[in-house]
Amino acid sequence: MKRCVKPIFEKSQAGRQGVALPALDVPETPWEKLLPSEFVRKTPAGLPEVSEVDVVRHFTALSQLNFGVDEGFYPLGSCTMKYNPKINENAARMPGFAAIHPFQGEENVQGALELLFHLQEMLAEITGMRAVTLQPAAGAHGEFTGILLMRAYHDARGESHRRTMIVPDTAHGTNPASAAVAGFDVVQVPSNARGNVDLEALRGLLDHRVAGIMLTNPNTLGLFEEHIAEVAELVHGAGGLLYYDGANANAILGKVRPGDMGFDVLHLNLHKTFSTPHGGGGPGSGPVGVGERLVPFLPKPVVIRKDQRYVLDFDRPQSIGRVRSFFGNFGVLVRAYAYILSMGPDGLREVAENAVLNANYLMALLQGRYDVKFSGPCKHEFVLSAHRQKEAHGVTALDLAKRLIDFGIHPPTIYFPLLVEEALMVEPTETEGKETLDAFAEAMLAIADEAEQDPEIFAEAPHSTLRSRFDETLAARNPVLRWTAETSGESCGK
Fold first, then answer.
1. Distance between CA atoms of 246 and 272, rounded to whole angstroms?
2. Which residues have a Cβ under 8 Å from the Cβ of 46 and sit 6 or more positions away?
3. Closest Cα partner for 274 from 343, 371, 195, 361?
4. Would residue 78 count as lying in a domain?
5. What secondary structure does DSSP assign to 305-365, as a single string?
6. Which of 208, 333, 387, 420 matches a 20 to 30 Å C-alpha distance to 452?
7. Is residue 1, in this structure, part of any structural domain at all?
8. 335 with 356, same domain?
9. Residues 382 and 328 in one domain
């Protein structure tokens, strides 16, 4: 049975109130004397009249409709929805961290600056880079910062003509967008039959205008670039730089470092790899690491240690400047710091091992009923295809994803990467146990059976949610984002 939660406006009863205000103990002043007439409503606000218990029950019911990693399995490929240890929350909420103000002087926030300094150092060691900035607020922001660093490097060398950025066809959509916004011409390099960068095609793209290449490794197919050393040699030989999209680094922790692969600049997503919450759109964190030759161009200020103190270093004449104002996401950085310390080198290595093991286990269970375009072991994620279901029964990847909700599981990423038809991109992460993985596999196999035996069931799926299938095109073009009296009753299907 579907649960209906009416808007709070529909629970309104005239005369009810949830708060009792004390009597005025000052002379009452007419509102006309306080507000200019142009700022006064012509009609009443129409606020709901409800009791305190109505308010509490309403918002409690809404919270129970949410879904996240604390409620169930979230196999969202490319996004790493891993469980966030609650001890990290305790660390971030310590008064000495949570109650500081961005305008406090350096002498009063030495503990916070020390944390930032050590987090920079740890991330540099983990990635094999020379230095790290914590300024970028999220992955795409870090990516854009990294591209600006590449541009500044070439310009400082008198090579402003290098304005071509090579991007694989497996790249995240933000890669070409960031390069284009930074003023680069984007050129796509295709993948070969094994899902890696086509080396011959890459050779044909390298000329005097190439600024660099943006790579994800493992790529979005969940495959490690087998010829990464050759790619690095070719791009460096042409005078370009290598950018590492490290938004999702779960497969390489403690195993291999981007700096050792030949990468010159990278960004990380602390809200993915380092187990900080995604935060409903923010705050996140996208630190950027660089090799030796890009260090002078890092955004300022940089946290450094000087004379037994931690200070913000603004004296960086080649810096690209600030990329944000304050560390408004400081709590996220504290959580990542606590996570790294609690895991240690061995723990981080185990993260990668378990993430890869879980992904390969699931792929082995499912590849007989779903298509897998690229055979062989994957890393932390893999891509299935619903091509056979669509061709034989008219059941698409979207249909499968919607139906999965009825099994109490969040859908995987669909229709990405673009070179896989009817793609379902699955990342189980290292935090899920075998029982959860088996339950997901059983659900996916049951859905494959339904596609063959009862394809009509998918037309209105999901069947268990407050709302069933939306017209997603109409919802995107004409969203209804607020309640009106004219739509009253529609929330429960009336």
1. 10
2. 9, 485
3. 343
4. no
5. EETTEEEEE---TT----SSSS-TTHHHHHHHHHHHHHHHHHHHHHHHHHHHHHHHHHHHH
6. 420
7. no
8. no
9. no
Q: What's the pLDDT score for residue 177?
A: 95
Average pLDDT over residues 139-151: 96
| CATH code where residue 456 lies | 3.90.1150.10
Task: For residues 406 and 264, state if they share a domain.
Answer: no
Interval 441-480: pLDDT, tens = 999 999 999 999 999 999 999 998 888 888 888 989 998 8
How do beta strands 241-246 and 210-215 pair? parallel
- CA–CA distances in Å: residue 105 to residues 119, 133, 207, 440: 20, 20, 49, 51
User: How does residue 196 score in pLDDT terms, banded at 50, 70 and 90?
Assistant: very high
Alpha-carbon distance of 263 to 129, in angstroms, equals 9
Domain of 204, CATH number, reads 3.40.640.10
CA 357 to CA 15: how far, in whole Å? 60
Q: Which domain holds residue 214?
A: 86-342
Give yes or no: residues 253 and 366 share one domain: no
Q: Kindly state the tokens that stand for 367.
A: 């590849």
Taking the C-alpha atoms of residue 441 and residue 11, their distance in angstroms, rounded to an integer, is 42
- pLDDT above 90 for 211: yes
In 3D, which of 395, 408, 397, 394 has the Cα closest to residue 463? 408
76-99 confidence digits (pLDDT tens): 999 899 999 999 999 999 999 999
Q: pTM for the whole thing? A: 0.91
